[in-house]
Amino acid sequence: MTTTDLPDHSVPHEAADPDRPVHGGHEHSPDEPRFDGRRGRWVGASVPRREDPRLLTGRGRFVDDIALPGMLHAGFVRATVAHAHLTALDLSATRAVPGVVAAFDAADLALGDIVAILDRPAEEFTPTAMPVLARSKVRFVGEPLALVVASDPYAVEDGIEAAQVSYDVLDAVTSAEGALAAGAAVVHEEAPDNVLLDVSMFDTPGVDEAFADADVTVEVTTRSGRQNALPLETRGAVAAWDARDDQLLVQTCTQVPHQVRTVLARSLGIPERTVRVTVPDMGGGFGQKCVVGREEIAVAAAARRLDRPVKWIEDRREALTAGFLAREQTYRTRAAFDADGHITALDVDVVCDMGAYSCYPFTAGIEPLMASAEMPSVYRVPAYRVRGRAITSTKAPTAPYRGVSRPQYVMAIERVMERAARALDLDPVEVRRRNVITEFPYTGINGVTYDPGTYRESLDLAEATIREEGWYEARERGRQDGGRHLGIGFCCFSERTGYGSEAFAKRKMTVVPGFDISEIRMDTTGSVVVTSGTMNHGQSHETTFAQIVADRLGLDPEHVKLRQGDTERISYGWGTFASRSVTIGGSAVALASERLGELLCRIAAHLLETRPENVALDGDGGVVQLDDPSRRLPFADIADVAHLRAHLLPKDVDPTLTATASFDVPGDGTFSNATHAVVVEADPGTGQVRILRYVCVEDCGVVVHPQVVEGQCRGGIAQGIAGALFEEVTYDAQGEPSAASFIDYLVPTATEIPDVSIAHLETPCAFTANGAKGAGEGGTIGAPAAVLNAVNDALRHTGVELDTTPIHPGTVLDALEGTS
Amino acid sequence: MKPAAFTYHRAHDVADAVGLLTDLAAAGEDPKIIAGGQSLMPMMTFRLARPSALVDLGPLRRVPAMTAIREEAGALTLGALVTHHAVETATLPAGFAVLARAMRWVGHLPIRSRGTVAGSLVHGDATAEWCLLALLLDAVVVAEGPGGRREIPADELFHGFYATAVEPDEVVVEVRFTRPAPHAALTEFARRHGDFAIVDAAVALDLDGDRVTGGRVVLGGVAPAPVRVPEAEAVLAAGGDAGDDALVAAVADAAATAIDPPDDPQTTATYRRRLTRTLVADACRQAAREPQR
């Protein structure tokens, strides 16, 4: 459809080579010398993934693979209207359907509500309850009203169809604007204005003065569409009451097993010890599974009531319409700049449409509070005012999705930078350069202290890469020829990853995540089992945590087995979200390993009849005597004594080889950072945006496993591109969601996602035990702004500026044809 | 997403299938034929379709005519169980090569491997590539019912919105494409590769050397059923040079102006018109380059 001399898919041609490293790209090998004392033989190497053999040969075990003797299947009668009083719910026909064993409504199960609370005054936060099954009112299409249990999933659906539901329909509330409008229908009686959170976190001195003195004032309203985090494995649970253990076993795919246990026990009104939550292999979570859902509680209650195992597997239609959604936010941002392009003030109004309910444990406040706390991003902002609101509407509730509000606030401030560049006639990268934080630690106007990173360096490297590959010339050629509309976009950002208890406490949650505990145990053969309260759902923890242990103990990762996802085996944990696993969980694992190492050395010194300071781990599965390296004890020999011949132990050493450590990130936590650079082309015939080049320069501190980090980057970028160009759940005026299948929910496939070049910069974190910062979310954060900026650059000649994602091809075509 | 209950019946030959359809209907059932199942099964799992009985044509794959691709008397005949993938990988005479080239637009490989040409035509999706191709190449659908065989020309086949002239008690036996189109192309636009097209366009040019003397313009996604666009075809009939951008633009404009496409919030009528202009022009240019030498 284009007719120029430029090659079709990549300009210039060699740039599309995915294997071509970007400058600064860093190959790691196990033989490389130590980086900073934290990287060892194994950390930093792309060792084969421990998970691969079983997952790649179909031997993984996911929730839906679990079948228990006598197991029944469950499904939910769900609301078909968005907002209504429930006037009648008759399950008698359901119970008569062949195969149906039982049907329960809210009154039948009498479960406690799910309530997430912030310790904030009433004018700032309104707590609301999410019932496990709707009682008197429904608040979104897809809300669970009743649970049907049957002999097979087909009979379950027959039973669901037979349910008779009557509604007294109320007006739907389908947008934040609509929710805030005078006379809007009230979603929760407790919040008559439909506002669940309204916090003005900052109003520092000098904001108004800065705008009065500004040489340039930029105003931009950015919006992002409602998305589904879309783990390919949908939610699900298998619950069974074990009478012998006096315990409810709930096998479910969650990122937060202990939090599920807590809510389950409280909702059912039973002690936590009588609930065991285990997690098998997981096919993704992306935040959708870091909150406690109502369905798994209902299923557990049914299993207990019926004394039969009950399985529920969310189908794709449920996942798209009734699962936790995310992202729908609007930022009205004003920024003042001086004539040199320095930002002098930022004034932001954040409105997040959180949907029908507040999620546990984070509450509906999580998105506006994170945005308010971190909005200045990577820039030196001298004056800052922000108001953040969480609005409730009659749409499916939201959960924090990979990146949380960062893709949105980064998009807002990155659009500010682009607009300021145009107003000041400066290069957009140059404007960023003049504002980006370069000296660390840096304490921002938001009171947050940023630990060292490579904000400026990543920006420079990303820009140099694009420049050296000739994309600026290619863009100009396309413009001159008139036929091709290429655009270059950047996004520079940081990302708080190690949210410790102290940082989370500032949000004033009454449930404060942060620490992690690890217990390590060596058996008589010298092999190690280590626990973590984090929860692998695709991030390769079994591999990376084994690398960390292996380096600390000096043994092969093959001898390390990670245990997660079992509330009986793991004393306590906060699971995996907020890129916390390697930073916090990995640190706890490292510290526990060190303690075990010390214990091994102490016993070895005793057995070798030498002083403790005269022995050390030898890096090869044993302890060596320093002044006589010929004297060495393999771990197995030490372990043999510790277990089987405990009378040989030092008097003050307990038998067996175990160590426990906890870790919490102090203060404001640590910040990963990155710059993304994107080249796009807008098709003048269809308005389609094609990505020609994607470069990511990232710094997540010490890289434990380069391939895993790059996988996280690429997957995150794919989800970010999805948000920028494809995915959106819209609702009609009655509150009916548009997307009930993948026909309408446009999750991009491998065909739509470009190759991504990744370069690693490494600024070790000073206060995690392994130097790592988190790497889970950055891709998702940077991509929407980078793509949006690139599209705007491609449309530069049209005068149109787009500030809403996803970008529809029709909108691009409007701009190109001058009909916007 | 589990189908409602249905009974399952295997047909052993065409007459058996017709008999099963007749007998089941007489017994108060609501039977439906299943061949590749690539449209029917998703509709059943969403319970948008809930036939009480399925008559499976699968065993008929061993009847050679049902999977045959053959040319005779200037027409190309596809057995009813010929898959998209079989056409995609077949070596077709120049007049019908557009069928093979168009198959890359049909869903994804697994869909093409099971889905059938006849099934797609009977399903009658307004954007289905086979429906456009049927109008482009004057397909004739041969259906067998209780009263014997009859032939349904493509221009009588589509009754709009998943409705076709094939009766519930009829079994499509073969599809005959009667109008060779050596200078033809189909192109389409979807947000993602493999999706249902938002708009698709097929063009066949009648060429005398490099001179256009007439042709067909067929569109999908602009009406409840695929349509020929006489206004655009009139421009082709008026003649011109095949390489003339003005002619291409005139055909595209005529097509975009003539249609009254659906308008919805996700995809406006205006956008469909613009896509039509782009795709018709693109199809014209591609068609003029065929057959490639």
UniProtKB/TrEMBL annotation, chain A:
Domain Aldehyde oxidase/xanthine dehydrogenase a/b hammerhead: 57-171
Keyword Iron found: no
Span list, region Disordered: 1-46
InterPro entries the UniProt entry points to: Ald_Oxase/Xan_DH_a/b, Ald_Oxase/Xan_DH_a/b_sf, Ald_Oxase/xanthine_DH-like, AldOxase/xan_DH_MoCoBD1, AldOxase/xan_DH_MoCoBD2, AldOxase/xan_DH_Mopterin-bd_sf
Keyword Oxidoreductase: yes
Residue spans of biased composition, Basic and acidic residues class: 1-39
Superkingdom: Bacteria
Keywords assigned by UniProt, alphabetized: Molybdenum, Oxidoreductase
PANTHER family xref list: ALDEHYDE OXIDASE 1-RELATED, XANTHINE DEHYDROGENASE
Protein name: Xanthine dehydrogenase family protein molybdopterin-binding subunit
Source organism of the structure: Actinomycetospora straminea
TrEMBL record, chain B:
UniProt entry keywords in alphabetical sequence: FAD, Flavoprotein, Oxidoreductase
Domain (FAD-binding PCMH-type): residue spans on this chain: 1-182
Top-rank lineage group of the source organism: Bacteria
Pfam families given in the database record: CO_deh_flav_C, FAD_binding_5
InterPro entries to which the protein is assigned, alphabetical: CO_DH_flav_C, CO_DH_flav_C_dom_sf, Diverse_Substr_Oxidored, FAD-bd_PCMH, FAD-bd_PCMH-like_sf, FAD-bd_PCMH_sub1, FAD-bd_PCMH_sub2, Mopterin_DH_FAD-bd
Protein name (Swiss-Prot/TrEMBL): FAD-binding PCMH-type domain-containing protein
Natural source organism: Actinomycetospora straminea
